[in-house]
Amino acid sequence: MISKKRKYRDIKFTRLVVNIDIIGCSAHLRNNNKTIGSCKWEIQNKGDMYISDFGIEDKYQGKGYGNFLARIVIDLAKLYHLKTIYLIDGAIPEGFWQQLGFKTKFLYKNKVKVDTGNVELKL
Ligand SMILES: CC(C)(COP(=O)(O)OP(=O)(O)OC[C@H]1O[C@@H](n2cnc3c(N)ncnc32)[C@H](O)[C@@H]1OP(=O)(O)O)[C@@H](O)C(=O)NCCC(=O)NCCS
């Protein structure tokens, strides 16, 4: 079994640049001036963050960069004392976010469990 410590040590942090644009609500990971991952979000109702367009370039997937970028955005939301993070756009694999604590949100309508299509993390 590969330990998580080992895996994250493999990221070449010395070459990694993290750009966070607070006003533009986006974050980019760059390696040798090349964008290798990015994320956009919106803050609504003064308490909710909506994450969209989250992705890591093909060549760099599976190396821990996605997890690293996700943690940055989650920490930012905590810093702003936001209450909930939602995933939008549907283009984001749920399994990736589940291991970070996100859950599919269900509602009960007439005692029937209904998937709302939202994936959320309560902070
Ligand atoms: C999904 C994505 C953001 C993950 O980023 P990444 O850098 O490849 O992921 P990481 O290396 O940080 O992996 C972190 C963890 O998430 C898991 N994971 C990665 N991709 C996953 C996926 N698609 N579904 C479920 N879990 C996933 C990894 O197994 C890893 O788990 P571990 O820590 O237990 O080993 C990235 O692969 C991506 O941008 N993919 C293209 C977009 C895409 O898949 N779109 C779906 C279209 S429907």
Categorize the overall geometry. globular
- Average residue-wise pLDDT: 86
- What is the helical fraction, as a range of percent? 10-25%
User: Within the CATH hierarchy, at the fold level, what is the topology?
Assistant: Aminopeptidase
CATH class: Alpha Beta
Q: Which ligands, by name, code or SMILES, are bound?
A: coenzyme A
Q: Helix count, per DSSP?
A: 3
What percent strand? Answer: 35-45%
Low-pLDDT stretches are 1-9
Number of domains: 1
Strand order, main sheet: write it out: 1-2-3-4-5-7-6
Q: Which sequence of SSEs, written as H and E, runs from N to C?
A: HEEEEHEHEE
Distance between the termini: 31 Å
Q: What characterizes the major β-sheet?
A: 7 strands, mixed
- The CATH homologous superfamily corresponds to Gcn5-related N-acetyltransferase (GNAT)
Give me the Rg, rounded.
Answer: 16 Å
Report the strand count.
Answer: 7
Secondary-structure class = alpha+beta
**Known CATH architecture:** 3-Layer(aba) Sandwich
Task: Give your account of this protein's structure.
By secondary structure, the protein is of the alpha+beta class. The protein has a single domain, classed as Gcn5-related N-acetyltransferase (GNAT) (Aminopeptidase), CATH 3.40.630. The longest helix has 15 residues. It is globular, with a radius of gyration of 16 Å.
